[in-house]
Amino acid sequence: MKRDNTPLLLVALFAVVALAGPWMPPWALFILTIGFAKGLVALGLMLFLRAGLVSFGHALYYCAGAYAAGGLGLAFGVSDVFLMMAAGGAAAGLLGLVLGFLLAKYRGIFFGLLSLALSMILYGLLVKNEALGSTDGFNILPSTFFGMRPGQQWLRYLVALAAAGVALGAALLAHRYLKTPLGRLAPAIKDNEIRVEYMGASARYAIHVMYVIAAALAGVGGALAATTVGHIDPDMSYWTTSGEFIFMAILAGTGSVVAPFAGALIFGVIHTTAYDLSPNTWQMFLGVSLLLLIFFLPEGLWSLFRRRKVT
Amino acid sequence: MDQILAVLADGIIYSAWLFIAAVGLTLIYGVMKIVNVTHGSFYALGAYAGVSLTGAWIARGLPVEWSYAVLAAGALAVSLIVAPLIERGILRFMYARDEVVILLITYALFLILEDTIKLIWGVNPYFAAEPYALLGSFEIGGLPYPTYNLILVALAVVSGGGLAWMLQYTRVGKLLVSVIHDPEVSRAMGINVGRYYLLTFTFGSLLAALGGSFTSPTVSVVPGLGVDVIVLSFAVVVIGGLGSLPGAALGALIVGIVRSICVHRAPELELFVIYFVMALVLAFRPRGLFSLAEPRKI
């Protein structure tokens, strides 16, 4: 049996970020941090994709996590990065647990449409909420670490390091989860759900667990994005945000837990450079890449690295 | 009493607009089983074509009375060019794929069209309010309403009624119904299913473009116009049942009236309530209010 070297790869990537970080310019650290934040969301979507589900509303949890973290700051003046991430993850996970009872029944197009409706409900509520700044959103307090406020030059690095650490932890856990019987059910559900049931497993339970995991991941990602950007607004829950996450997940493919982070990072780089070069055509670039991916690389970029099986 | 009248009037006008925007979506889903995100792009394309053609028409000093025909011509022009291009060029290779994959394809096409619009028309807003201003206004319960809104209501009734009539009484419509029920058997019976897919996609997109072009005199046409329309028409169509024509009408009426009540009574819930109704319907009747049970596939 082939040795599983994904954990090793993950730790090595983390070490690279930790060592190279102090020499990176602030803008690069910013892109990297946002890449980790959105990668967490894409990781959740990857779990869905393995089961053949596409959520057109996962931005719901991204936004819920960000507003939970931001609300903590508004109400209690909390600005600790780890506390915010914990709050975002917990709030989104709880929301996912509740909504999961409903959504775990749905498949195919209806799963996508119901999650879309739910995310638009949050958007509709936030847009009209004066206390939370309606369409403008509100600013987040500058990040702190265990009560300390690092200097400007270290702040970006430390946030990036915290993001990398959380991403590492999440990726390792997700990797373990994919090896459990529950995690292995997902591709089986995609192939033939009824046979899964005949086998004695509950597809609904497996999807519910997956849903809560994906929601919590997105919540942590949202909180991380909130503290990195320093501002949150209801657009985080709009359907186009969900569309971007789907793009990242499909770009990367479902081959490995590293893939969603790579997808999010590539998306961030494309977004930044294309937006700089020609702001009016970057969506077109995204659209064309998505079309080409679906036509020619349906398993995502990650499939390029996989060694072909010898037959 | 006056308020009830106002709520009803607003609701019906908004429902009419929603129905025009959404009816093409339900037609395309009904025949082709595609949840078509590009629908919003066609709405935006129609709006841009309508506003620039009308603007040019009026700038030449031609009679404003004819600008309604110009609006329709604009919608017709863009949808007859772009829709067949998309259907023949891309979608027809994907019919064998999963519904969700086709949804992603149309999402990619939506992104491309969104920027194409920006490349053609730029990012500045366009106005051509003359067709709107020409008709003046009338009063219901002491509140003035622009007469132009009646055109929207008429357009909704004509497009919905016309579609229903076509499906029931014409040869094309009857053949289309057979394609809806079973494309494979229809093909075996000698119906050119590919041609009906092309026809449906073009006609459905034309309806979206008409919605856009007839809305264009009432708003300023800006980039991102179609983005909201997509989710709104999804909500309408899902409430009524994907692929159902009476469903789309009912969905539009429900959303229109409920939203209008909210706007008058609790304006902060305006957006929330639309998607809340959508989620509620999906939770209890996932296939919408007008739908039949579907057998589970093994």
Largest sheet of chain B: 2 strands, antiparallel
Order of strands across the main sheet of chain A: 1-2
**Number of contiguous helices of chain A:** 12
Estimated radius of gyration of chain B: 19 Å
| Architecture per CATH nomenclature, i.e. the level-2 architecture of chain B | Orthogonal Bundle
In terms of quaternary structure, the protein is: heterodimer
Low-confidence stretches of chain B: none
Characterization of the model:
With 311 residues, chain A is mainly α. Chain A has one domain. Chain A has 12 helices and 2 strands; from the N terminus they run αααααβααααβααα. Chain A has helices spanning 6-20, 26-50, 59-76, 81-103, 108-127, 152-179, 181-191, 193-198, 203-229, 239-252, 259-277, 282-296, and strands at 138-139, 231-232. A two-stranded antiparallel ribbon of chain A has the order 1-2. In chain A, helix 1 (6-20) packs antiparallel against helix 6. Chain A is globular and about 60 Å long. Chain A starts with 5 loop residues before the first helix and ends in a 15-residue tail after the last helix. By secondary structure, chain B is mainly alpha-helical. Chain B has one domain (2-284): ABC transporter involved in vitamin B12 uptake, BtuC. Helices cover 73% and strands 3% of the residues of chain B. Chain B contains 12 helices and 2 strands. In chain B, a hairpin with a 2-residue loop joins strand 1 and strand 2 (143-146). The longest helix of chain B is centred in the N-terminal third of the chain and has 31 residues, at 2-32. The N and C termini of chain B lie far apart (55 Å). The relative contact order of chain B is 0.20. The mean pLDDT of chain B is 87. The interface between A and B is large, with 41 and 47 residues.
